[in-house]
Write a structure and sequence with these properties.
Elements (H helix, E strand, L loop, with lengths): L6 E9 L5 H11 L3 E12 L4 E6 L2 H14 L4 E4 L5 H11 L6 E3 L16 H9 L5 E2 L3 H8 L7 H12 L5 E4 L8 E8 L5 E6 L9 H14 L4 H17 L22
Parallel strand pairs: 1-2, 1-4, 4-5, 5-6, 6-7
Antiparallel strand pairs: 2-3, 7-8, 8-9
């Protein structure tokens, strides 16, 4: 990386409220020392309380964005977020089939407000077309359960078993995020092919301002991979960054619902 600027590319939906999606990814890239590029898959009318409209970007325009960015920018890592439809999934999979760098996938399905961000018809396409391309998959507990067609994991042991089951679908590694679990401690479990399990725990922060946590976590992982970190180091650094961003979230006063985490907690109040 000497003499080069690390670059990460986000392929995701736009959040007009600025707390999740492309906007969160670019903030997380920048806060973690990486230049961010973007490909928009969908435009949402969104704030801290609801998603009121979704406009799917035509698949050929999504493909053109990816092709154009990769033709000029030496992208070191890619993060995938909201893909929304089978058409977009097909376009993204086709364009990324020859990409040689790490790909981080946050399988975005439901917004913090409860609104759907992935069509039901796209779940099978996600399994079949995207998971085989993935370096690390970062599902929360409901997303993992949906992808596997099983009940949500309730213990770290069950999380590890579901991570192994998801890994069998193609990803080189799976990070099961425990933010949806109960209790005073939030535990994440990373299972990588050929590696020992890595468990990351942190005290649960009592705050409503958790909008964009999944986007931010996966984008931070992609940022550290773009800088050349190995996987466990990238996940650990991203975990610590996100925890600090959640702890600082109540310094922000954004909207009346689930506000965003503080991406730039290390730079301004």
């Amino acid at each position: 990386m000497t003499g080069k600027t690390p670059i990460a590319l986000s392929i995701a939906g736009s959040d007009s409220g600025g707390g999740a999606g492309i906007q969160a990814d670019l903030k997380a890239f920048s806060a973690n020392g990486v230049y961010g590029a973007s490909v928009i898959t969908a435009i949402t009318a969104q704030n801290t309380q609801a998603v009121t409209a979704v406009h799917e970007v035509p698949a050929d325009v999504v493909a053109a964005q990816i092709e154009t960015v990769l033709a000029d920018l030496p992208v070191n890592a890619i993060k995938l977020g909201m893909l929304f439809s089978p058409r977009i999934i097909d376009a993204v999979a086709d364009q990324l089939s020859g990409f040689q760098g790490p790909i981080v996938v946050d399988p975005v399905m439901i917004a913090k407000s409860g609104d759907a961000l992935l069509q039901d018809a796209a779940i099978n396409a996600m399994r079949d077309k995207i998971l085989p391309l993935v370096t690390v998959l970062t599902p929360n507990l409901p997303e993992a359960a949906t992808l596997l067609g099983v009940a949500e994991a309730e213990t770290p042991q069950a999380m590890a078993e579901q991570a192994k089951a998801l890994s069998a679908l193609g990803p080189q590694a799976v990070l099961m995020k425990g933010g949806h679990s109960s209790g005073d401690t939030c535990t994440d479990v990373l299972i990588a092919q050929g590696g020992a399990p890595l468990t990351l725990s942190a005290p649960r922060v009592r705050t409503r301002n958790t909008h964009g946590t999944g986007c931010t976590y996966s984008a931070a992982i992609a940022a550290h991979l773009a800088k050349g970190s190995e996987l466990s180091g990238a996940v650990t650094a991203a975990h610590n960054y996100l925890h600090a961003a959640i702890k600082a979230a109540d310094r922000l006063y954004i909207g009346a619902g689930h506000g965003p985490v503080h991406h730039f907690h290390g730079y301004w109040t």
